[in-house]
Amino acid sequence: xxxxxxxxxxxxxxxxxxxxxxxxxxxxxxxxxxxxxxxxxxxxxxxxxxxxxxxxxxxxxxxxxxxxxxxxxxxxxxxxxxxxxxxxxxxxxxxxxxxxxxxxxxxxxxxxxxxxxxxxxxxxxxxxxxxxxxxxxxxxxxxxxxxxxxxxxxxxxxxxxxxxxxxxxxxxxxxxxxxxxxxxxxxxxxxxxxxxxxxxxxxxxxxxxxxxxxxxxxxxxxxxxxxxxxxxxxxxxxxxxxxxxxxxxxxxxxxxx
Length: 257
Prior knowledge:
alpha/beta, 7 strands, disordered C terminus
């Protein structure tokens, strides 16, 4: 059903749990992979652990997604290795911190915005010229794109901005046959989310994990594999008439603002 045989997919944030889960699932459906992350040693170790003997078929690239030259270089290396691109998944992310507005560090705000928004922008800017008709761009967003929480200024602002970027790209690229969607999961059981919940818990004075579980209809966090399944759908031809959409791949939080 999800045939990606001969397709080339580049994933940023490739060493994280969501990036690796998506990579594993796309690879099992035939995709050729380029995984981009800041730390090449961590990326190589993750690829070895995830793909085993097949790790040689996966291209690992160290790059900072906020650096224009590094993004261009990562895309050039991918095209040189595999040819034209079919799927771009902008998954690199950083949470920042949780603090009252008067104490929120400006440099942290700027970095979070750069990783999420500038990173996705640069990936599209320099990736689109190499994409085939029928290609797909997936931006990893969050339920944070639909709500507000005290002190989570950088992350929530960045995720709201990604929605706007996705919608603009979807209209721009539709005539070229390229789909653009965002995936907006609720809380996922991984180290990234745990850091989010630890910071939020300190700000609101209660357990952050319990705070989120109470808002999720299914009463639990999602898994990286569950989110990856939605990424596979958006990457494949099964979503050939889906663009400009923000997909909620799991039981989402109630969005009381």
